[in-house]
Design brief:
Tesmin/TSO1-like_CXC, CRC domain-containing protein, mainly alpha, 3% strand, elongated, DNA-binding
DNA sequence: GAGTTTGAAACT
DNA sequence: CAGTTTCAAACTC
């Protein structure tokens, strides 16, 4: 890259033509050359135009080392990251913010006295000002340099991070990139695990993200701004090699920080909401807390020793607590799932009341049920129509003529369509001759079809395809009466499907409420003194979880908690039992899965 | 504001 | 790659 020769670092061979007149003379602070704009692009200020050729040359070099950035998939980003990532690639060296700035760095009281990089609403304002003394602002120690911006109004000494020293700066950039091609890239990125990963807070909105390299904190517990993760308002991740980390989801210390501040309460609430979302489906409400290097490899996240995914999630400290017993710390405590393996009762974890309750299979079953219900609705509707229209059947048969070109290759389906034209219904004999064909009623509504899109069962995929073909064939017939019939069928099917789905959700809500009530009452009665002011009402998930955890320690909680998995099965079963016609195989399949 | 602590970056 | 040094921000008083 660059000149191709070895680069002295720090640069001593600064081109005389470009270097500052004297190294020891504090460089004159120049106006900032690049401004971040809300639109995500850097703008060249008038005074920087003179240096453009140099910058462009450098930008080419930089682009070479950062090409991969273009191919990276979209990632959750902070505002600053979004701004950076949306910038033209070749401009990155001057724009990628400093690690701290890249992650929405907040500032200490002292720092707040200086211009902020971002305004309160996230609108980029003025950059922080460094105080470098020995780095010439040409190393990543310097926030400005690391941010890819010239120093401007900083308190630095012997600054070379300015236009006058562009050559030196450029070499420094090259040297930095040589050491670390990612040096100017955002440090916070999304994880390959997607939703299971860390959340990054931007203002009060949490998004996912984690530190690409991870922190290496030893003494700060990752709860001070020394920690890059904490500074970025993200949780530590498996990338971190920190010790005694307290910056993990559910950390009491971390939450204590949040609770001390009204604004941060919103963060906590939002986190809880996120946790509820992620925890409601699947076995873990929260992602696992980070494991320090020293513990990594010792702990089994999903080890065979895990007797129950819902057990052993208490006392989430993992690496953070030198607990003698390996805490299987997969996720925070599920309120409704407690076990005897409580470790670290002081740890407070929020977990969805529905965590471990709704499993992916339940959703699949729900979809199946809805499909079946839809099919039944279609059948019922067509039966009714059949009765009503029976006396006009002959007339319709003669008045509605299909063009043969519009017939589908599948003769059976074409026949069905033609028959539908005649009778506005599906012949029950045809459609249900095979149980697997039950939902194949051609009157499947768009909503039902949508539900089926995610169904991996080829049986249903085939069905959907057939239905689509039929619908297409029939639509092209321009037979309004039939269309009307289809519309009616769709409407009816959607009504039923939505009703069932609503019922399902209501029951899920009920389960959650039951859990909540039980957790709350359990906590009140068995753990804390009645006068504990925190434990009022049923909405304090944190308090309840704490109680629950304590109750779990007493080994009594389990007896008070209904078997939620059973409840979910009951939901699906009841849906099947109440609404699914006698379509042997499918029904059996659903029930078997349950 | 000076001094201390901390951890990333730089260096060996 | 691990250990050490340098550095500047964060923090404390």
């Amino acid at each position: 890259m660059g000149e191709g020769e070895g680069i002295d670092y720090p640069p001593k061979n600064v081109s005389s033509s470009d270097a500052a007149p004297a190294l020891d003379i504090p460089a004159k602070k120049l106006a900032r050359q690049l401004n971040f704009t809300g639109s995500g692009g850097a703008v060249l200020l008038p005074e920087q135009e003179k240096s453009q050729p140099q910058q462009l040359l450098l930008q080419v070099d930089m682009a070479q080392s950062q090409l991969s950035l273009q191919s990276r998939p979209p990632q959750p980003q902070t505002l600053a990251q979004s701004v950076i990532s949306s910038l033209p690639l070749q401009q990155l060296p001057l724009q990628a913010p400093h690690p701290s700035l890249r992650v929405g760095k907040s500032e200490s009281p002292k720092a707040r006295s200086r211009p902020n990089f971002e305004s309160k609403d996230g609108t980029p304002k003025k950059q922080k000002q460094c105080n470098c003394k020995h780095s010439k602002c040409l190393k990543l120690y310097c926030e400005c340099f690391a941010s890819g911006v010239y120093c401007d109004g900083c308190n630095c000494v012997n600054c070379y991070n300015n236009v006058e020293n562009e050559a030196a700066r450029r070499e420094a950039v090259e040297a930095t990139l040589e050491r670390n091609p990612n040096a100017f890239r955002p440090k916070i990125g999304s994880s390959p695990h997607g939703a299971c990963d860390r959340r990054e807070e931007v203002g009060e909105v949490l998004i996912l993200g984690k530190h690409n390299k991870g922190c290496h904190c030893k003494k700060s517990g990752c709860l001070k701004k020394y920690c890059e993760c904490f500074q970025a308002n993200i949780l530590c991740s498996e990338n971190c090699k920190c010790m005694d980390c307290k910056n993990f989801e559910g950390s009491e210390e971390r939450q204590a920080l949040f609770h001390g501040d009204q604004n941060n309460n919103m963060v906590y609430i939002q986190q809880a909401a996120n946790a509820a979302i992620t925890g409601a489906v699947g076995s873990s409400g929260f992602s696992s807390p980070p494991i320090s290097k020293k513990r990594k490899g010792q702990e089994l996240y999903f080890g065979a020793t895990t007797k129950d995914s819902s057990v052993g999630r208490l006392g989430q400290q993992a690496n953070h607590v030198r607990s003698p017993a390996p805490s299987l710390s997969l996720s925070p405590i599920p309120c409704a799932h407690v076990g005897p393996s409580t470790v670290g009762p002081s740890k407070v974890m929020y977990r969805s009341l529905l965590a471990d309750i709704i499993q992916p299979q339940h959703l699949k079953e729900l979809c199946l049920v809805l499909v079946l219900v839809s099919g039944q609705a279609a059948k019922t509707l067509t039966d009714q129509k059949n009765l009503m229209d029976k006396h006009t059947e002959d007339r319709r048969a003669t008045s509605h003529v299909f063009s043969t070109q519009e017939q589908l290759p599948s003769q059976k389906e074409s026949d069905d369509c033609s028959k539908a034209n005649q009778t506005d219904k599906i012949s029950p004999d045809n459609s249900s001759s095979d149980g697997a064909d039950a939902p194949k009623g051609r009157s499947m509504s768009p909503g039902t079809l949508a539900l089926m899109c995610d169904e991996q069962d080829t049986m249903f995929m085939t069905t959907a395809s057939s239905i689509g073909s039929i619908a297409h064939a029939c639509n092209t017939s321009s037979q309004l009466p039939y269309r009307q019939g289809m519309t009616d069928a769709y409407a009816e099917q959607e009504r039923i499907v939505l009703t069932k789905f609503r019922d399902f959700l209501n029951r899920v809500i009920t389960i959650g409420e039951i859990n909540e009530t039980k957790c709350s009452s359990l906590a009140r009665s068995e753990l804390h003194s009645p006068k504990d002011p925190i434990i009022n009402g049923t909405g304090n998930a944190r308090a309840e979880t704490t109680q629950q955890q304590g109750a779990a320690s007493n080994g009594v909680a389990k007896a008070h908690v209904p078997p939620m998995a059973t409840s979910m099965s009951t939901i699906s079963t009841s849906l099947v039992a109440n609404n699914v016609p006698e379509n042997g195989e499918i029904k059996l399949k659903v029930e078997k899965d349950i």
